[in-house]
Amino acid sequence: MKITITFILITLLMSCTENKAQKTEVSNAEFSLSDCGGTYKGKPLPFGKPIEEWEKLFGKPTRKQYDVVFIWDNLGVIIWNVGTTKDDEYSPDYEIRKYDQLYIFFSNLDSPSGKKGKLKFVDEFDFFEAQRKYQEKHKIQGTQNLELFDINENGEFQNIELIKQFLIYPALSYKKSISIDGSAINPGISLKELNKKRKSKDLEILSFRDNNLDGNNQWGDTKEEDGEYWNNEKRDMCPSQSTFIRNIAQFSNHELEFIKVEYYDKND
After folding, report:
1. Containing structural domain, residue 233
2. Less CB within 10 Å around the terminal CB: N or C of the chain?
3. Tell me: the pLDDT tens digits for 167-181?
4. Within a domain: residue 120?
5. What tens digit of pLDDT does each residue of 253-267 get?
């Protein structure tokens, strides 16, 4: 009996300590997200508005890919407009900017998975197109210097600094905790730990997984399988608003790669 009571007391103490730590992480989080919107340092995320509004939050982008992807290297975030292509000119109009998506990167090309090419956008990387651009830029013919794009004997990129020029990953990953629905997500967190924190706050776990984007749930047992996870059991679709956002966690090679924030207009 004595042992049982001691065990219960220790368990309660550990639970209280964990809850206190999570409250601190949430209160200190610069990004605070929910189904109905989000803030950065207390200011609303300006989805649907011109890039200049994002610059008021993050400063000027350090680089961009065409007028499609805007990258803040020092912060570890990007804005990617999925409604435009490299051939489109920049437009500040709502009908274009409503397709802006925010990515908060917890892993980049300097992370263990990044060096081995195990991240989502590395898998989708067109090496032949990158080689063509490199040859064109440096006026190279034939196969000269193309070994720079190779993988070495350790399974890592031969020249990671070169590869960085062609991918959207920020130079630095995001180093702080963020809050989604009042539950903390911190760098290096596993899917199991992420959902444990959500359960402790009586939140739906992130379990809907649609890796081939066919609209069907490929949920298994949430054991850090690669793919995108989100809460598809919406208790509240923000009835007082005409818009909502979806917060998605991407795990790659058992590593939290990024949080993607998608914006939706209910009138579409």
Report:
1. 31-111+169-265
2. N
3. 899 999 999 999 999
4. no
5. 888 999 999 999 999
Q: Transcribe the chain into DSSP letters.
A: -HHHHHHHHHHHHHHHHHHHHHHHHHHH-SEEEETTEEEETTEE--TTS-HHHHHHHH-S-SEEETTTEEEETTTTEEEEETT--TTSPP---HHHHTTEEEEEES--TTSHHHHTT-SHHHHT--HHHHHHHHHHHHT--TTTTGGGGSB-TTSSBTTHHHHHTTS---SS---S-EEETTEEE-TT--HHHHHHHHHHTT---S-EE-TT-SSS------SS-SEEEE----S---TT-SEEEEEEEEEETTEEEEEEEEEEETT-
Q: Looking at the structure, do residues 146 and 160 belong to the same domain, yes or no?
A: yes
